[in-house]
Amino acid sequence: MVVLKRKLISYIFISVLFFSNFSLCGQIYDYETEIFLNKLILDIKEVNKFNKKIKLHIIKDDNPNAFVIPKNKLIVSSGLIEQSPDYVSLLAVLAHEIGHLEHFHLEKRKDQLEKYSKLNLISNLSLITGSILAQEPQVLGGTLASQVNINNFYLSFSREQEREADLYSIKTLQKLNLPSESVKELLKILEKNALDKGFDENYQKFSTHPIFRERYEIIDYNSKNKIFNFNNKIQDEFNFIKTKFMAYNDTLNQTKLNDDNRIYYDSIYSSKSGNLIISLEKINFLIKKFPKNFFFLETKGDILRSHGYLNESVKFYKIVLNKFPDNYYIKYKIFLDTNTINMESNDKINFFYENLNLIIKFPKNKYIINKFIKITKDLEKIYWLNFFNIINDTSNKDMEELQKKLNNLSKETNEIKLKKIINEYNNL
């Protein structure tokens, strides 16, 4: 799991962030989790006949949170994964966010805000979109409090959107024949977090979201199924994912883990504490007990890699990669750890072309770019070297200027693969 640290704003409930300068620099890359979440998303889409492509991102944020941003991007926090009681409550949150997309709430909110802006009813658009949605209590004593009357209609409109998304979520559970009790459990967790941060009901009347009591009523009213389809196998998968997140993020707290999950947690935690022998003993136990769970092999590779055993880690990565050829995070680690100094020229060329897609998957990763620069110098591939130098140049902050340089390079070279990469890079 590759984690880059970034602190995000706390949210009371599952929020929708519309017009921010939000950057995914705190993204978590974990193939197992992405597969799992995308399966849940697929189930939601199928029962609702929602056919838009959703791009998933997982971020490092201890606060339980999920939201959508333009271009159908769905952002899920590590805190939500760790604190969701079961996979059903997590699915309900994802359905809530997809409900916002299904009902075009992003577009409607944008239109509404633009209307207010044109009428000069909102003096600070960024304050309203940032502070109300982010629900920061400190702004209530200032500008926002003086604008409450002006923005009542906007708040009402937003709450209706949230109710609509809530209903969409509950109806999705009904269609999938899943219980909603765990959703109430998650709401209680979120409510406690909110109260701990000073968000009482007096504050919630300013919020764009329905208050918690209202949400409990929605769940109770719409939960009519008697026999449910809860899948224990899916829950077992989710428990191991939760455990992995808690171990890497040191957020076990008072969470009760069964024997196997506790062993998994201890394996990762022991590795982080420097005890490689105990760590390997525990992960080897799980590998033997669950031979079909290839992600335990990936974790073993990560453990060995973190202790400097690069050649040994690659062996396990390749086994996982054979099972999941689209696991670019493993490809990333293998690429960085492979020593190309003593490679034969043909092997180095093959290695070069086999890993080119990493540039598209991780377009601004300096480690990848610098390694490609070194390889292109060894291979004397001038046009490729120019390409990597262009995308590595920190002065190219203007996207139009960057694309201009890349397009000029594309015209200069006859190499088809370079032209293709440039085109893909420009379309990111």
Describe the structure.
The structure is a single chain. This protein has three domains: 2-222, no CATH class; 232-325, no CATH class; 345-426, no CATH class. 63% of the residues lie in helices and 4% in strands. The chain has helices at 31-48, 78-83, 87-102, 105-118, 125-134, 143-146, 152-175, 181-196, 201-204, 212-222, 232-249, 259-272, 276-289, 294-306, 310-323, 328-337, 345-354, 357-361, 366-379, 382-392, 399-412, 416-426; strands spanning 2-3, 28-29, 55-59, 66-69, 73-77. The strands form two sheets. A three-stranded mixed sheet has the order 3-5-4. A two-stranded antiparallel ribbon has the order 1-2. The longest helix is centred in the middle third of the chain and has 24 residues, at 152-175. The two termini are 23 Å apart.
For this structure, the quaternary state is: single chain
- Strand order, sheet with most strands: 3-5-4
> Over all CA atoms, what is the radius of gyration?
24 Å
Quote the beta fraction: under 5%
* Computed structural class: mainly alpha
Mean pLDDT: 79
Question: Residue ranges: pLDDT <50 for 5 or more in a row?
Answer: 2-25, 119-157, 202-208
Q: Strand count, sense and closure of the main sheet? A: 3 strands, mixed
**What order do the SSEs take from the amino end to the carboxyl end, as H and E?**
EEHEEEHHHHHHHHHHHHHHHHHHHHH
Number of strands: 5
Percentage of residues in helical conformation: 55-70%
Distance between the termini: 23 Å
Number of helices: 22
Shape: globular
Number of domains: 3
